[in-house]
Design goal:
By secondary structure, the chain is mostly helical. The chain has one domain (2-64). The chain has three helices and two strands. The chain has a two-stranded antiparallel ribbon with strand order 1-2. Strand 1 and strand 2 (10-11) form a beta hairpin. It is flat. The chain starts with a strand and ends with a helix.
Length: 65
């Protein structure tokens, strides 16, 4: 079990992010958090095929517009 980097609450090992939903929402906002999780999950699925080409910050910026 890993723990939230902000409030140290337990976070599931299989979670793609290192913080709990509540902190993530507090830090990024709900929409941004969803975008980040989506991108991280996508990156995990394609990570083996496209190593080193993942840039979720760019993707999330595009979604913001
Ligand atoms: Zn937390």
């Amino acid at each position: 079990m890993k723990s939230c980097i902000y409030c140290k609450v337990d976070v599931a090992d299989e979670s793609v992010i290192d913080f709990c939903d509540r902190c993530g929402e507090g830090v990024f906002g709900r929409k941004m958090l969803e975008a980040i999780k989506e991108n991280m999950e996508k990156a995990e699925r394609t990570g083996n095929l496209n190593q080193g080409s993942i840039s979720f910050s760019k993707d999330t910026q595009e979604l913001k517009d």
